[in-house]
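Person: I have long wanted to understand how a fold can be written as tokens. Underneath my words sits a plain record pairing an amino acid chain with its backbone structure tokens. Those tokens are not coordinates but codes from a learned vocabulary of shapes. I should like you to check that the lines agree and flag anything odd. The protein I mean follows directly.
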Amino acid sequence: MNQKTLGIALAIVIIVGAVGYFTFMKKSSPAPTPAPTTTYKTISWHDPENTILGFQFDIPNSWYEAPQSSEGLMQVSSCPPNTAECDYVYLNIMAGSVSQPGAYINNLVSGSIEKDYGYSKISTTVSGVPAYELVNKTYGDDRIIYFQKENEWYVFELYPGTKNKTEAYATLEKIVSTFKFTSAQTPTAPSAYQLFKDIDEWELSYQNKNYNSLMVCADGSKGDTSKGYTFGMNSNGYGDPPGDIDTPYQKVVNALKDNGWQQCKAIGQTELQDTQGTSEVFIKSNKLIGIFRHYSMGIGNSLWVSIQY
């Protein structure tokens, strides 16, 4: 056998041996474990101040829905805030009136936020509605999606945490893709509203969960919290703006007492009547009404009445 023939034979032996080795290893190696499938749950939310509003979307079962502190803001996240060893990924959803959008939405729509923070703007859709998405922020990785539907602006703020941002955005985009509009509830004021309706020109607020948690009787009673909502009435005080003369506080208290409501929490010793945050709570048929007062000369007085319903 000459040297050339010997070399070819050795090469064939090596190739056959390598193929056999890798075939054996492939057969003997365990099959890869499939990645766990993420399951989602549906979160529904509506703003009954406008019958157009109302939507729902899906989030992973392991995600957390933050308590809703106002009608126009909702937040869901991968874990509760300040949870140890958790990469905090979250989505904020805001709604604001087109006629009174507020400073943040106004700056967003006008292009100021895009310019000031170095975003790039691209076109997208949400639930079939044309929208804009701000991406590629100069400093930071958050994104913003915003669009108008009828008389409301909707804003989505997407924050991917600090660890696996690619995976985080895949989840956030999945959530946004499930967003859809539903039928909102028509607002219905509770019957107790009739006690105060003609006392002042009130600013009304429906379905606010925040103030319900602030109403507790002195004995710890929380009334009927099955719905978890309150109907809010705000007075900006009497007199020319900013309403420094007085508030309809005494008229509200008289209306309550004249109609069988009992005071179950009085103003505390440290809650003087000329300080911020003074509060009283009244109860009737396991329903609560809270009164929160604010007095401030030069800035304006206000009175907030919260009715459980």
